[in-house]
Amino acid sequence: MTNTLHEPASDLRARFCAAMSGMYRAEVPAYGTLVELVEDINGTTLARDPALARELDATAGAERLSAERHGAIRLGTAGELATMRRVFAVMGMHPVGYYDLSAAGIPVHSTAFRPLEPEALAANPFRVFTSLLRLDLVEDAELRAEAEAILARRRIFSEAALELLERAEAEGGLGEDDAAAFVDAVLETFRWHPRACVDRDTYTRLHDVHRLVADVVSFRNPHINHLTPRTLDIDAAQAAMPAQGITPKAVVEGPPPRQCPILLRQTSFKAFDEAVAFPDDEGGHTHGQHTARFGEIEQRGAALTPKGRALYDELLAEARRAVTPAPDGSNAQAYRERLAQAFAAFPDDWCTLRAEGLAYFQYSLSEAGAAAAARGGAEGDIDALIERGLVRFDPIVYEDFLPVSAAGIFQSNLGDRGGPAIAADANWAAFVAALGATPTDEFGLYAEREARSLRTCLERLAPEPRRTAEAG
Q1: Cβ neighbours for 279, distance < 8 A, ≥ 6 positions apart
Q2: pLDDT band for position 406 (cuts 50, 70, 90)
Q3: Could you tell me if 446 and 436 lie in one domain?
Q4: In total, how many domains does the chain have?
């Protein structure tokens, strides 16, 4: 039984998201500039596009827009990942999807912790893209063993955080005071600490293997590496960033601009150099720099069905085979043109996307439909009811991530080379074992949401005699 004195998970998640945003704004001032830029663009976009505003209202998207964020962290051990799963569960966030970034030469595999139910997403959709380092992909056995030993010694959660975690699990939640203390304690795991836990020589050797390996192993905790607000017009944001003193990456990751946005488009500003102190043999420190943290903006579109996703993956691969985006942006225009050419084959109107089963939709009664339901219902299948204007359909927002886009963001912030080539080697079983749970399949979540909304509409519009018979 739920204790009514416990703070709801969605409130706890909102509290944590706000605390994280405030901390990151203080640590990375350019992030605050991004948030202000996105708020301005979203306001302008909604003012000039009433249809989009109505669509957001119909899907409870308007209320969540200004607070929407996702963050990203990189963990070093199975134990860290399993404990992080428990921490996020207290906030109503659960692992969804599996992302193999080794296919792009990045030695991690990942999941996204996020709310599962539409109501929880509407209350606060905070997500954290969480990666686990793949030291098994590091060929240097001696360095790999050294890195494993370093990670085994560190403790990324404080005793206070673990005590409150165990209390939340035992009691089914936390009261207001304990919830505030829990957020404060967990926030320390994500905070930037400029003192490395390895000497400069070890850092350099890790860095030479891959910059991301150095980022995970060299510090005492998995500092958040970016926090991302959601925009309604990422191309406007990309164009406006330089005027704010922010240089965006050369190309926007994901699909090209469309009338009907799909999946996820992302851009970022390049990670900046930060002063780091490395311990030396004499008990002092030597000074150096580390590059890891950056700012990102995202635009979310419709969730695609397996059929739609297969078409997306095929067209993206076609574009990237023709033109692979260069880190320095030298072929950015050529890539944008080739991407647009490839995606001309992807339907760009909601009716066709629905008719061809390419995207997921949420069904609801129109005003006319609600009136018909009150009068006793209406006959017809879903297509007929839509044609008569009794049922409307709105795209379900994609709540997850894209491995190619994530890799593109990571690579753009690791410089021209993150390190020597990493062999592609997905390992779902190892990730599940480390996590201590099986990530939820995102397609199943979208399909169930669509089916539930469709059933609700059809039940409400069922003619009165049928409703009476079914009730009996």
Answers
A1: 195, 196, 197, 198, 199, 285
A2: low
A3: no
A4: 3
